[in-house]
UniProtKB/TrEMBL annotation:
Entry GO CC: plasma membrane
Taxonomic source organism: Puniceispirillum marinum (strain IMCC1322)
Domain Penicillin-binding protein transpeptidase: 231-533
Record has Phosphoprotein as a keyword: no
Entry annotated with the keyword DNA-binding: no
Domain of life where this protein originates: Bacteria
Protein name: Cell division protein FtsI/penicillin-binding protein 2
Enzyme class: transferase
Keywords recorded for this protein, A-Z: Carboxypeptidase, Cell cycle, Cell division, Glycosyltransferase, Hydrolase, Membrane, Protease, Transferase, Transmembrane, Transmembrane helix
Amino acid sequence: MMRGRGFLSNLRNLVLPPRPDPAASRVIAEIRLVLCASVAILAFSVIGFRIFNLSDAGARERMANHLKTSHVERGQIIDRKGRLLATNLPITVLHADPREIMDVTDAATKLAPLIGRHDVASLKTLLSKKTRYVELDRKLTPARHAEILQLGIPGVYFAESTLRVYPRAETAAHILGQVDPEHNGIAGIEKSQDAHLAAGKDIHLSLDVGLQAIIRAEISKQINEFEAIGGAGVLLDTRTGEILAMTSLPDYNPNHFAKASDDARFNRATKGLYEMGSTFKVLNTAIALETGAATPRTEFEVMKPLRVSRFTINDYHPSKKPLNVAEIMVHSSNIGSALMAEEFGASIQKEYMKRLGLLDRLPLELPEIAKPLSPKHWKRAATLTVSYGHGISISPVHLASAVSTASSNGLRIAPTLLKRKTGDEIIKTRVFSEHTAHAVRSIMRLVVSHKEGTGKKARATGYMVGGKTGTAEKVQANGGYNAKANLATFVATFPVHDPRYVIVIMVDEPKGQKQSHGFATGGWVAAPAVRRIVEQISPILGVHPVDEESPSIRQKLMLDFNIGNQEATLASF
């Protein structure tokens, strides 16, 4: 009987299972719920993380670009004697991730006293941006770094980077140029040689910072003395085409590029285009002698003004007698120069201007190079005015290069800002014969050494300077000339008996002074600066003073030019 009951109980349990224990069921359900929730959260986290990565990839990439330090440090820029002009310094950059800033106002208030470039308001604006990266400051000192670190503001970070610095400050600002925050070149040598510098290669310039400083100081002195608005200077090695010094004033400190005015950033030496006035008479004389249109003894009737269409060509100091070619340059006769140009004509003049590089941009290693402005219609009027530097606008470097060709050995060498290496092939193009160049520089010597020469104030005793003055009214933006705004220029070759260097000094809008008797011409403004420069740089360049009256020096110059009623002796006057 008991066995029968057990069987029936087992059967009932199989058909109708016993009611589960409520407490045990709740535990099992909770475990299952937690497991399911965990799986769901994990799945959504993975999906969310992936979405975040995809949506924020651009922001993180930009952030990485700001913070990265290239494994190749940007190359240095060095002068011809190995002195640093541009290099890199390690710095600490302070930046923030606005998304991590918990209290923008609190963070801005705490940071403002330690960040000079921002106040609380500007910091709040930065820290509220919808981005992952904002730069707050760079060039942090160790002390400021420590103070900011102690604030413990979430979302504020530090990164090691480098800063491009220019140890010589203003000395060669327009040549060196500038880089952007990512160290990409944006101006000057930094831009033109960006690929080499970015690859870690140093750039050796033809510049000598010692010579550069001297020329900058002397031009600055003339600008101050004559209340001018600016100036420029170029020193060129005639045998190699290397530019040893080049300055433009006003200039700026490239370490504080953002503070520089537009005028200070403008490179008057290569970007500025000017009518160079009577300095062109050097080139006009060279063309006349080379083409056979005249000899040094050929005379021209200059006593009366020359009518050209509705214009009249006059001389500043009219002559009462015919002048020969040498006298035309010594007295700076516009009429004589125009008559010489009329002898060889427009097509010849234009061809020589082209061969001298005066119609094209110079192949110089700077982005800031201007293309000269030349006559659209090169007819008689243009030919006559170009002969004395009007109607054609060039840069001071153009002038230095052209005069170097005409007064050294007649060979044109494209100017360069890069130091020549031993064995480098220098491309030279014959423009004038050596005989023509010999005659031209001998006449240039008379401009400085003769008592009637317009460039007497450039004479540096013993250093045999030859040159030419130039004074031209500035062209107005709306056409015509501004009679109250002059350019005073002097171009010099030295030493003329063994030509090695050409100097161009230009002063922009000088005003006549008491000591200059009210004059603001090239002879009064630019020539004295050339004399002082030659006296200072000659020992550096290894140019030694000579006895101007020694036979060995006299034999190297043409001495058969007649100036006035006397035969010029070129040695001393």
